[in-house]
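This part of the workshop introduces the protein records we will be handling. Getting from the letters to the tokens is the skill we practise here. The record below serves as our worked example for the rest of this section.

…
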Amino acid sequence: MRGALALLLGLEEDMEVVAQVAEGDKIVPVALKIRPDVAVLDIELPRHSGLDAAAELRAQLPDCKVLIVTTFSRPGYLRRAMEAGAMGFLSKDGPVDQLAASIRRVLNGESVIDPSLAAAALSAGPSPLTAREREVLAAGLGGATVADIAAKLWLSESTVRNYLSSAIGKTGARNRTEAARIADERGWL
């Protein structure tokens, strides 16, 4: 998908695709070297999310504007993208000419948000989870034990249990696996 988008955007007379990056942890180093005007990022990338990369880009390369293009239309992702400093959030399902127009608008300092995603985000409300609760749930997504999560996050096992218990209550889940699934589906992780 990345290659096809790059090829089609490269056909635009006023655009030049200066880099394509497959892993999230490579985005910021490449951007610091190339210094693009606009970075078009996906959310789900190997080794580092596009949302994390967007926040790092805004901090380290503030002149680079970020546009998130995703297949994940979860309302929480839109909210997190805006918090990370992205100026746009679009579905990959849209036509390429719409993407090109959105890149131009973002370059000119405008915010561009898919209307259906904006409506869903407003109706969903903010995430009830704290940053640490999200971190603990995310660390347990792959079936990690409490001990594994504690070791990974440098927390005690009882502290991890407290965060999990709080997250379970806030999501209305029956257990931590269900809490993680609910939070992930709503785009809170």
The chain has two domains: 2-124, 131-185.
